[in-house]
Amino acid sequence: MAANNSLAGDFLPRKVKLIITQILVMIFLCINLLLIMTFFKKECFHTSARYILFALTLLSDSFLLFMSDILVIWAIFHLTIQVWLCVIICAVLLLYVTVTPVTLTVMTLECYVAICMPLRHGELCSTRSTMHCILIIHGLSSVPCIVILSAFFVSASLSFYKKYQICSVEIFIFHTWQDHLRSALYQFQFLIMCIIIVFCYVKIMKVAKAASGENKKSTKKGLRTVLLHGFQLLLCLIQLWCPFIEAAVFKISFSLFEDVRYFNYIMFYLAPRCLSPLIYGLRDEVFFHALKHYASFGLHKRDII
C-alpha cells in the first residue's frame, strides 16, 4: 500500500508536467501555424528576404517543438526505443536546434543591409539570394550534427544500435572528450553569431545617430529588432550549458535532475521559440495587418457556416 502511494505521489508531478508542456506546445504550434498560413496566403511576403527567413524560423521551430515534445513524453513515461531509430530522430533535432539561431543571425545581417546599405539591399537580399542562403543555413547548421554523430559512430559497437534506450542526445556521449568537443563546437559557433549581431547593432546605431525623421524611426526599430535577436540568441546559448548543469545535478539527486531538466526545457527550448512570432508576427505592421485580416476572415467565415 505504501509502495502504491509512493508511485502515485511520483506520477502526479509527472502528469502535471506533461499537461503544462502539452498546453504550452499546443499554444505555440497553433500560433506558428496561423503565422505560416498568413505567410503563404499573401504573395508579397514570398519576394521579401525578411519574411522568407521568418517563415523558415517558424517552420524550424514548429518541427523542433513537435519532435522534442514527443521525446519529453517518452522521457516522462520512461519509454524506450532502439538506438538506431533514436539516431535518426536526434540527427534531425540536432540540425534544427541550430537552424533557428543561424537564421536569426542572417536576419540580423539582412536588417543591417537594409539600414546601412539600402542601395544594395535589392541585389544582396533578392529571392534567389535568399534561397541560396537557406541552403547555406542548413549546411552550417548540420556541422555540429555531423561532428557529434561521427564521434558516436567511431565509439559505438554494432550491438549498441539494437539496444533499447530512452531517446536523448546524451546516450551518444561515451567519453568526456566527446562532451568537450560538442561544447567547444557549439560555443565557437555561437561566439561567431554573437560577434555578427554586436557588429550589426553598432553599425545600425551609428546610422541611427546620423538619421532624421522617418529614417531615424526606421533605424530605431531596426535596433530594437537586433536587440531582440540578441536576446533570443542568448537564450539559445544558455540552452547549450543545460547539459552540464543537468549532469552535475544528476550526481546529487535523480528527482532533482528531472525537475531541472524540465525547467530547462520550458525556459531555454520553448521560450526562445515563442519570441519569433512576437518579433515579426506582432511587431511588424505589414505582417500584423495581414494576420489580423486572415484571422478575422476565418472567424467571420466560421460564423456564417
From TrEMBL:
Lineage, opening ranks: Eukaryota, Metazoa, Chordata, Craniata, Vertebrata
Alphabetic keyword roster: Membrane, Transmembrane, Transmembrane helix
Compartments where found: Membrane
Pfam family, one: 7tm_1
Organism for this UniProt entry: Lates calcarifer (Barramundi)
Listed GO MF terms: G protein-coupled receptor activity; odorant binding; olfactory receptor activity
Membrane-crossing residue ranges in chain numbering: 20-40, 52-76, 82-112, 133-154, 184-205, 226-250, 262-282
CDD domains, A to Z: 7tm_classA_rhodopsin-like
Entry-linked InterPro entries: GPCR1_Superfamily_Member, GPCR_Rhodpsn, GPCR_Rhodpsn_7TM
Keyword Transmembrane helix: yes
PANTHER family noted in UniProt: G_PROTEIN_RECEP_F1_2 DOMAIN-CONTAINING PROTEIN, GROWTH HORMONE SECRETAGOGUE RECEPTOR TYPE 1-LIKE-RELATED
Protein name, UniProt field: Odorant receptor 131-2-like
Principal subcellular localisation of the protein: membrane
Domain (G-protein coupled receptors family 1 profile): residue spans on this chain: 31-280
Cellular component, GO annotation: membrane
